[in-house]
Design goal:
This protein is of the alpha+beta class. It has four helices and eight strands. A hairpin with a 3-residue loop joins strand 2 (14-17) and strand 3. Helix 2 runs antiparallel to helix 3 (69-89). The radius of gyration is 20 Å and the shape is elongated.
Length: 165
C-alpha cells in the first residue's frame, strides 16, 4: 500500500504532499484528482482577457477619434491593466498533480496582514518543456489562516520541498 500523504487545507481545497509528488484536490480525495491530473482551464481565461483588452483598445481609439476623451482614457486604462494581468499570469497553471522530478523551485510568500494571503509558488517543468508556475493559496485570516499556514509550511519542510524559509 502506498504511503499516506501529509495534507493541509488550501483556499479552495486540499494539498496532499507525497515524497514524489504534490496533488491538489477540491474535495480532499487525492485519488480522483490523480485520475484527472490536468484540469488546466486557466488558459481560456487568459485568452478571454486578451480578447477583451484588444476590444477595449479598439474602443479607446474609436472614442479618441470621436473626441470623447474621457471614454478614450478610461477604456485605454482598463485595457492596459488587463494586458498587464495577462502578461503577469501567462505562465501560471492550474494542474493538479506535480511530480517532484519536474519541480525546479518552491517559494513561500508570507501574507501581508489584512491585505493578502500566504501562498506557495511552485515552479516546474511542464511536459512540453516550458517552465510553468502553480500557485497554492492558503486560507485567509478569517478562516484560521495563521494555523493553517504554519501547518502547511511545516509539511512542505518535512517533505523537503521548502528549503530555508
Amino acid at each position: 500500500m502506498e504511503n499516506q500523504p501529509q495534507t493541509f487545507k488550501t483556499k479552495l481545497g486540499f494539498c496532499h504532499v507525497f515524497p514524489d509528488r504534490i496533488v491538489l484536490s477540491k474535495a480532499g480525495d487525492y485519488v480522483k484528482a490523480e485520475q484527472n491530473p490536468n484540469p488546466d482551464k486557466r488558459s481560456k481565461f487568459v485568452y478571454y482577457y486578451l480578447f477583451l483588452s484588444v476590444y477595449l483598445i479598439f474602443q479607446s481609439v474609436t472614442a479618441y477619434l470621436d473626441k470623447q476623451y474621457f471614454n478614450a482614457v478610461a477604456s485605454g486604462f482598463i485595457a492596459i491593466l488587463l494586458l498587464i494581468l495577462v502578461i503577469k499570469n501567462f505562465n501560471n497553471s492550474g494542474i493538479s498533480v506535480i511530480k517532484r522530478s519536474s519541480i525546479k523551485n518552491v517559494k513561500f510568500n508570507q501574507e501581508k496582514k489584512r491585505l493578502t494571503r500566504s501562498y506557495f509558488v511552485i515552479q516546474y517543468t511542464a511536459t512540453n518543456g516550458k517552465t510553468r508556475k502553480r500557485l497554492i493559496m492558503l486560507p485567509g485570516s478569517l478562516s484560521d489562516g495563521t494555523e493553517a499556514t504554519k501547518k502547511a509550511v511545516e509539511i512542505m519542510k518535512d517533505e523537503g520541498y521548502l528549503m530555508g524559509n
